[in-house]
């Protein structure tokens, strides 16, 4: 009985963490979705985010056995810096007009965005790696929640972008910039 209670407690803890980490993908997905995005691109981006939400905590858990807590803070700063750069670039492109040099739907854009929203999963993985945590449950929960929350955020951003018109990219960039600064500070 005590063992079953411990497993349920661990499951609830991991699920809450997965949802919290998925909220980043949701919030930032709103910003990207505001640029205007097709359903096919939403599926591609969300799939890559889900894969990164599996890979990053997995790598973090293995690293957590060997690294100190300092690495988690460095990863958070790196994720914040990446999001600040992406946000500034989106804002710049929205006012510049013309041909865009960076597209979140491009393979490089998808990878950079997915890495940015999954960096905190690595940090959490490092922390979980220092404890005995169910590896399969953790990475599958993180991947599912990250993918699902990014789909929801991208769809919501897409819907909002229809009402904002050309300013959608600037608003989306401001959202990415704000979250990047929150990661750093």
TrEMBL record:
InterPro entries the UniProt entry points to: Mntp/YtaF, Put_MntP
Its membrane topology: Multi-pass membrane protein
Intracellular or extracellular location(s): Cell membrane
Domain of life: Bacteria
Pfam families: Mntp
Transmembrane segments: 6-30, 42-62, 74-95, 107-129, 135-155, 167-184
Primary localisation category: membrane
UniProtKB keywords: Cell membrane, Ion transport, Manganese, Membrane, Transmembrane, Transmembrane helix, Transport
Coiled-coil stretches noted in the UniProt entry, renumbered to this chain: none
Primary role: Probably functions as a manganese efflux pump.
Similarity comment: family membership: Belongs to the MntP (TC 9.B.29) family.
Protein name per Swiss-Prot or TrEMBL: Putative manganese efflux pump MntP
Organism the protein comes from: Paenibacillus lacisoli
């Amino acid at each position: 009985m005590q063992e079953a209670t411990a497993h349920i407690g661990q499951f609830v803890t991991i699920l809450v963490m997965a949802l919290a980490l998925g909220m980043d993908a949701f919030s930032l997905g709103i910003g990207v979705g505001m640029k205007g995005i097709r359903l096919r691109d939403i599926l591609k981006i969300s799939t890559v985010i889900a894969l990164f939400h599996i890979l990053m905590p997995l790598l973090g858990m293995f690293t957590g056995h060997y690294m100190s807590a300092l690495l988690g803070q460095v990863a958070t700063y790196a994720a914040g810096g990446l999001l600040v750069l992406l946000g500034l670039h989106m804002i710049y492109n929205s006012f510049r007009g013309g041909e865009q040099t960076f597209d979140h739907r491009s393979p490089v854009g998808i990878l950079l965005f997915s890495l940015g929203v999954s960096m905190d999963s690595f940090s959490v993985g490092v922390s979980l790696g220092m404890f005995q945590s169910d590896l399969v449950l953790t990475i599958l929960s993180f991947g599912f929640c990250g993918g699902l929350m990014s789909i929801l955020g991208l769809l919501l951003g897409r819907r909002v972008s229809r009402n904002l018109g050309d300013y959608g990219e600037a608003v989306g960039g401001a959202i990415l910039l704000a979250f990047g600064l929150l990661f750093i500070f």
